[in-house]
Amino acid sequence: MTSPPTPIRVVVADDHLVVRTGFAALLDSQPEFTIVETANNGIDAVRVCRELSPDVVLMDIRMPGMDGIEATRQLLGDAPDGADVPRVLILTTFDLDEYVYDALRAGASGFLLKDATAERLFDAVRVVAVGEALLDPGITRRLIGEFTKTPAKAPAKPSPTLGTLTARETEVLLLVAEGMSNGEIAVHLHVTEETVKSHVSRTLTKLGLRDRTQAVITAYETGLVVPGSRRTD
Fold first, then answer.
1. How far apart are CA 49 and CA 139, in angstroms?
2. What is the residue-level pLDDT of the chain in tens, covering all 233 positions?
3. Within 10 Å of residue 7's Cβ, how many Cβ atoms?
4. Over the chain, what HEC string results?
5. How far apart are the first and last CA of the chain?
6. How far apart are CA 154 and CA 85, in angstroms?
7. 138, 99 contact by CB (below 8 A)
C-alpha cells in the first residue's frame, strides 16, 4: 500500500490577526498542508523557522520590530551553506511594489497578494514547496524592468561560479534573465522543453540558487546581463 504524501509544513507570519488566522485556517483545511506555527512579526518568524524547520513560510512584508524583508534575509541570506532553509512566499497588498523587489533580492521565491483566492493560495504553496519560482514569465519581465531603471552603482564583477557553466547553460541563463519561459527557450534554441528544464536545473545547482527568480537576479548582479541591454538575435 502506498503511503500518503507527507504534508507540506507551513508557517504563517503576519502582524494582522485576521490575515494570519485566515490563511492558517484555509491551509489547515487541506490534508496536504500542516500549519506548524504562526508569528506576528519578523523576529518571531525567524525564531520559529529556525526551531521548527518548515517547508514554506508565508511572510508579510510590513511587520513591526522586524519586517518581512529582513526576516527573509536572516533566514536565507545569512544561512550557512547546506542549511535546511524554508521557501519564502511573500504576502503583500500591492502587486510588485518596491518592497517585493527587495524581498526577492533577499531570497524569496515569489509573492502572493493578500486578496488571493483559496485555490490560488493552495497552488502558490505547492509551487514554492517543490522549489519552483512563483513568477510567471510576464512577472519576470516586470522584475527585469525594475533592474533596468536603476543601473548598478559600480561595475559588477562576474561571479567565479559562472565559469562552471557550459556555453549552452550560460545561454539558457541569459534567456531566463530575459524573462523567457522554458517553452519559449526551447523554441529559440530548437530543442525540447525537457532539455531546457535539464539545463535550468543544472545551472541552478551549479550556482547554488533556489529558483529561476534568483537566477534572474544573479544574471544582473554579476554583470552577465547589463541593465537595459537586449539580445538582437
1. 28
2. 556 678 999 999 999 999 999 999 999 999 999 999 999 999 999 999 999 999 999 999 989 889 999 999 999 876 655 567 899 998 888 765 677 778 888 888 888 888 888 998 998 899 888 876 665 555 556 666 665 565 544 444 556 578 899 999 999 999 988 778 888 899 999 999 999 989 998 998 898 887 777 888 888 778 787 655 555 45
3. 16
4. CCCCCCCEEEEEECCCHHHHHHHHHHHHCCCCEEEEEEECCHHHHHHHHHHHCCCEEEEECCCCCCCHHHHHHHHHHCCCCCCCCCEEEEEECCCCCHHHHHHHHHCCCEEEECCCCHHHHHHHHHHHHCCCCECCHHHHHHHHHHHHHCCCCCCCCCCHHHHHCCHHHHHHHHHHHCCCCHHHHHHHHCCCHHHHHHHHHHHHHHHCCCCHHHHHHHHHHCCCCCCCCCCCC
5. 53
6. 31
7. no
Q: Which residue shows C-alpha cell 500591492?
A: 94
Residue with cell 537566477: 215
